């Protein structure tokens, strides 16, 4: 009886640690993807902003300032659009990660139910067998 309990406990612990490892892997993969996306966006915005500052420093007359004003407005709009697009991608990645974690939880719950049913039915079957 003790051996059976130990085996069940070991199996449950192994299943729990496997699931925890999978959940951690999924979460880290999602975080890595989000961080990579944000870094690429930051790099692109820094490059565009540096080009704008360089152009601003080279401006010498009123016409140059006027075109610089228009370019600055355009740059601001493009950066805002890029930020919105990146936010939407991050939301999609987060949602996909959450769905994967939910599937993992459902899998764990089903396995736990099966193990519980087996744990309850095994002693009953053994008792019936012993009674015969």
Draw up the topology in text:
Layout: H1 2-58, H2 62-131
Helix pairs in contact: 1-2
Describe the structure.
By secondary structure, the chain is mainly α. The chain has one domain (31-131). Helix content is 96%, strand content 0%. It starts with a helix and ends with a helix. The mean pLDDT is 87.
Instruction: Identify low-pLDDT runs.
Output: none
Largest sheet: none
What is the overall pLDDT average? 87
| Structural class by SSE content | mainly alpha
Number of helices: 2
Shape: rod-shaped
Q: How many beta-strand elements?
A: 0
* Relative helix content: over 70%
Give short descriptive properties of this protein.
rod-shaped; mainly alpha
Give a concise summary.
It is built from two helices and no strands. The chain is mainly alpha-helical and 132 residues long.
């Amino acid at each position: 009886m003790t051996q059976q309990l130990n085996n069940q406990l070991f199996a449950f612990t192994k299943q729990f640690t496997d699931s925890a490892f999978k959940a951690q892997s999924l979460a880290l993969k999602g975080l890595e993807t989000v961080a990579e996306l944000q870094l690429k966006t930051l790099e692109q915005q820094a490059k565009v902003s540096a080009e704008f500052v360089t152009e601003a420093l080279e401006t010498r007359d009123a016409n140059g300032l006027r075109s610089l004003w228009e370019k600055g407005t355009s740059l601001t709009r493009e950066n805002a659009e890029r930020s919105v697009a990146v936010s939407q991608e991050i939301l999609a990645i987060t949602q996909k990660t959450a769905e994967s974690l939910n599937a993992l939880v459902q899998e764990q719950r089903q396995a736990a139910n099966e193990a519980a049913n087996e744990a309850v039915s095994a002693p009953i079957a053994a008792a019936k067998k012993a009674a015969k």
